[in-house]
Amino acid sequence: MPEKIDCVVIGAGVIGLAVARRLALAGREVVILEAEEAIGTHTSSRNSEVIHAGICYPTNSLKARLCIAGKLALYRYCAEHEVGHKRIGKLVVATDHAQIAGLNQYRQQAEINGVGELRLLSADEVAELEPEVRGVAGFLSSSTGIIDSHGLMLAYLGDAEARGASLALASPVVSGAVTGDGIVLDVGGREAMTIVCNTVVNAAGLNAQAVARAITGIPPGTIPPTHYAIGHYYTLAGKAPFKRLIYPVARQDWLGVHVTVDLGGQVKFGPDFSWIDRIDYRFDESRAAAFYEAIRRYYPGLKDGALQPGYTGIRPKIAGPGAPAPDFVIQGPRDHGVKELVNLYGIESPGLTSSLAIGDYVAALLKD
Length: 368
Fold this sequence. Notes:
Number of helices: 9
CATH architecture of the largest domain: 3-Layer(bba) Sandwich
Radius of gyration: 21 Å
Helix content: 25-40%
Structural class: alpha/beta
CATH topology of the largest domain: FAD/NAD(P)-binding domain
């Protein structure tokens, strides 16, 4: 006879762990099912590890609301739980006068979103803050920071386990069905089993749509399409020339090749952006020339041979080439008609920053 479980969270990335933590703190019996052999092996560990300010997201979007609420909660959480982080700030730079209009759009949207910290900087002020950076203008976001994403996931997991949650690794959901007694999940892996759940939260990231399609009874029309976008990161050899994160003025679909500095002081450049048709983390070293060209627009001192291949990450996109960047899609019972089910789709950046707020949002959907 299938085992009965109160609440199952599918996916042990930063979002799944944040949701599991939130539900466990509310007194729910929680089991986390993770298809891989470890937590956070996909998007959660292959990103820029940035705490975003919430500057550029569309007005009243989930990305804007959850990023700003999540940022405030995340700084508090990291301080209280001794998770490695640092509020180092971000310098956004216009490399020519035509991009100044873009800076002003950033500032206007930031004010609408409630991020009133931006001040336009002259070329001299940019150079004073970051002598190696060339720009005709810019602004500084003081609330942007960096974080140890793995340490954060371990803290979330520790909180959840302290409240009785359990983690099952190498336990992929292979099929399921919505029934009158709950949501039945067939779990694969070394110890295959069938479980019946009162509540299911699908936080499977890159595989969220595949998981939803595998569960009979979830209306197919509520499941968005699946698209993947890969980004490459190069690391910089030698001493870090920057104190802050450096971002060029963004394009429509991505933020450009930017500079991040991790907690160990290593400088990374990336990500770039290209569409792929499957999950494949292989590094394309032919991209180096394009990186040198993009970076030298704001860091002309970059020397030949200074870039070393780093890693790649893949964004879980729900809209393809040419389409506007969509909002997070977090569907509760009112959206798809299935009781006690929440599906999370397209949780890309600023998902990590928003993770605590997303946990609260999911918990509220399950109360409706």
